[in-house]
Design goal:
This protein is α+β, with helices and mostly antiparallel strands. The chain is 17% helix and 45% strand. The strands form 7 sheets. Strands 2, 3, 5, 6, 8, 10, 11, 13, 14 and 15 form a 10-stranded mixed beta sheet that branches. Strands 9, 12, 16, 18, 19 and 21 form a 6-stranded mixed beta sheet that branches. The longest helix has 22 residues, at 13-34. The protein is rod-shaped. The model is unreliable at 432-455 (pLDDT under 50).
Length: 455
């Protein structure tokens, strides 16, 4: 039995080897059909090794252009290639391989690329072969780290003081890179938070165009810094303005219009609970001698800070105030003498006026003047100290309220006669001749009695 088996195995060896080869080829064809080859491209930052080789020379390497970004592609079975990412490769340039005898200022350092997985299944084709560097002088510069926040706190909360510890960063590296640094910041996320928050973050370097600067050639004395953000309460409070001074004669202050009328402030809860308004002192808006509307811009910051608070929106720190000044209207009224209340007249005396009415000039705002009637004006005279004869007295004019004012002094000419006195000879002659004829002035006064005119 054994002999028969061996005879079968050794007979026609060439045919058997050919069959085996055909089977392998067929298997490879089937595999290729099931998992065909694919290509994929990558761009990966080059890790620079052994930088101390250059620093020991008192120099630092400066990268030329974008040669520190390695461009390469891979090929291989699709099932492997498609699963590969940039993190699956190690891309390095070892400065210990630098040939200092190279001509020119630009030196070439070979870039090595290796796969961290599936290495035997893929082929790497490099497009960036060398890292190009120059040898530059070492530069060192200090920057104050600016705190920045990202996100929005919970409703009813606002960001208070934000600080970075430590807040000074020393950056060293190639002069061409360090000179590009414009500012350094540290950012903390406050989205949705309602209480104080602290975080350890890496400082970020920016150029003057606000582009991030990142390079393996830079060294920082602080890899991480601590940033703290205080979270405060907020409150909407009204703004209250007052004025000082008096407008020009004949004008009246009508009030203020300003926007915004409220402001959102932030601070500790104890302070917020004790504040009901932001008060603008009266001396800020002075209307002395004003003859027309005034516009005033007011910075709220000093008055908010005065009560220990600050604005939620620092850019909304100004209010526009309009002071309303209105010119008064003047109007003349003819007050009939019958409406003058006389007091203190001796019972034996008789009082007469030189005319039938008295002109009174009244000043007030138009809306008030439109409703003022002659019946609303009263006059009064006190003649208790007067003897018979002709007198000129100042009339005491009474108006409905302090919205109205009498412009000028109103004088009235009166005559007081003693009813029991013996008539003089000329008067007796007049009595015999009969009552006199009224003068023209008296007739005109009678016609105008009770009239009023505007001025």
């Amino acid at each position: 039995m054994f002999r028969k088996t061996m005879k079968y195995l050794v007979n026609n060896p060439g045919l058997k080897v050919l069959s085996l080869l055909l089977s392998v080829v067929l298997w490879m064809v089937v595999v290729k059909m099931a998992d065909p080859d694919a290509n994929k491209s990558f761009s990966v930052s080059v890790e620079i090794l052994n930088k101390d080789v250059i620093t020991e020379m008192g120099k630092v390497p400066g990268v030329v252009g974008n040669t520190d970004i390695a461009m390469f592609s891979i090929s291989g079975p699709r099932s492997y290639v498609e699963k590969m990412s940039s993190d699956d490769f190690k891309v390095t340039a070892d400065l210990s391989q630098l040939d200092l005898n190279q001509d020119g200022d630009v030196k070439l350092v070979p870039i090595e690329i290796s796969a961290k997985k599936n290495e035997k299944w893929i082929t790497i084709v490099q497009r960036t072969v060398n890292l190009q560097i120059t040898l530059e002088d070492l530069s060192e510069k200090k920057f104050v780290i600016t705190p920045e926040v990202m996100g929005t706190p919970a409703e009813g909360c606002a960001i208070g003081a934000v600080e970075v510890v430590p807040n000074l960063l020393t950056v060293s590296g190639p002069e061409s890179i360090v000179s590009r640094i414009s500012r350094v910041s540290a950012t903390i996320n406050v989205d949705g938070v309602s209480s104080d928050v602290t975080d350890n973050v890496m400082p970020t370097l920016y150029d003057e165009d606000e582009r991030v600067i990142s390079s393996d050639l830079l060294e920082m004395n602080q890899g991480f810094v601590t940033i703290k953000a205080k979270i405060l309460g907020t409150k909407s409070v009204p703004i209250r303005c007052q004025v000082s001074g008096t407008p020009a004669e004949g004008y009246e202050y009508r009030g203020l219009e300003y926007a915004p009328e409220t402001v959102l402030v932030k601070g500790e809860a104890s302070l917020l609970n004790s504040i009901n308004a932001i008060n603008i002192p009266e001396d800020v808006i002075n209307i002395d001698g004003a003859r027309e509307d005034m516009e005033v811009g007011i910075d709220l910051n000093p008055y908010v800070a005065e009560v220990g608070l600050s604005l939620v929106d620092e850019t909304a720190n100004r209010i526009a105030v309009q002071v309303l000044i209105e010119e008064k209207e003047t109007k003349e009224f003819n007050l009939p003498v019958e409406r003058i209340n006389v007091t203190g007249l001796n019972g034996d005396y008789e009082l007469t006026y030189s005319g039938s009415f008295v002109k009174i000039s009244v000043r007030a705002l138009k809306e008030d003047m439109d409703i003022l009637q002659i019946e609303d004006i009263n006059g009064a005279l006190d003649v208790s100290e007067l003897a018979p004869g002709v007198h000129t007295l100042q009339l005491n004019v009474t108006l409905p309220n302090d919205k109205f004012e009498v412009i000028n002094t109103v004088n009235v000419q009166i005559t007081i006669e003693d009813k029991n006195a013996e008539p003089e000879e000329d008067e007796r002659q007049d009595d015999e001749d009969g009552p006199g004829t009224p003068s023209i002035d008296e007739e005109e006064q009678g016609e105008n009695r009770g009239d009023s005119t505007e001025r």
